[in-house]
Protein: Nif-specific regulatory protein
Amino acid sequence: MIITQSPKIKQLIKFAQRAGRSSAPVLLTGESGTGKELFAELIHHSSPRSSKAMVTVNCAALPENLLESELFGHEKGAFSGAVAARQGRFELANDGTLMLDEVSEIPIASQAKLLRVLESKRFERVGNSTPIDHDVRIIAASNRDLQREIEDGNFRLDLFHRINVIEIVIPPLRDRIGDIPPLAMHFIGQFKNEGDVEIEGLNSAAMKALARHDWPGNVRELRNVIHRACVLSDSPRISVEHLGLPESADSAEQRNGGGVPDGAQVPDGVQDGSEPHEPLPERWLHTHLEDVERQIITAAIDRFGNRRLVAEKLGVSPRTLTNKIKRYRESSGDDRKAA
Structure:
């Protein structure tokens, strides 16, 4: 299940479901921890192959001398330690889906054999020359820039074109911080009973700290942070000190509380300690959340000019502000200051 309130991720979900209805290979790219395996599962369950197996192989975890055996299987006595015949992942995934996670870690010599197997739809077990037909839908995933890997001689261009019929680029968590509240509450639901106190949610300062963190480890890092906080918290609501996030220039403000920044919707369980505010303009109640945020950023830049000052006034990091401006420019295709 992909938990999101991000319009971009919702669009990607619909795109992945459409891709799933075909048999075309899909390449999932994005930083580590962004949820590539969840998208792979979505594609499989949206496909005509959903009643068959989905098999995942982590290419980075396999030694070079065992990779071909894992993918294609081996016969008894094919090598030292092969005490019995064994099916490979292609056989196990036949008529279903095979996910090649961290495909960029496959050694260049093995890439040539993988390419032949994908193009011919046949393979041989290690220690046997009898070809075996396969009908496998390939989903590949990588957290590396494959174009750069090709330029550096670490990845074959022809294999890249073979697996990159449909590409889905999953954005990092720092570019969709509106997903942090629902994800945090989802993980709290998983780990709320692992400490001495049953966890109900986070206080406002803790949620603000989560929203301002850069999340280099993305959703996986958020999950670990919430797990740790659920174990260590001595009150039903998680505080900043339980998160274990690195200190930043904003830490004092985080500890003093405040609302959740950037228009993120606050789910049940998040305690907002902010003061009562004046009513919002009526038109904002009928406007998409991102459009309201965009109007605020544009007005702030017109008023204050300097982006660092704008970031300070809006209660976000300069990096977050820059990312938002870049996203708005890409979505609108024009050169307006914050659009």
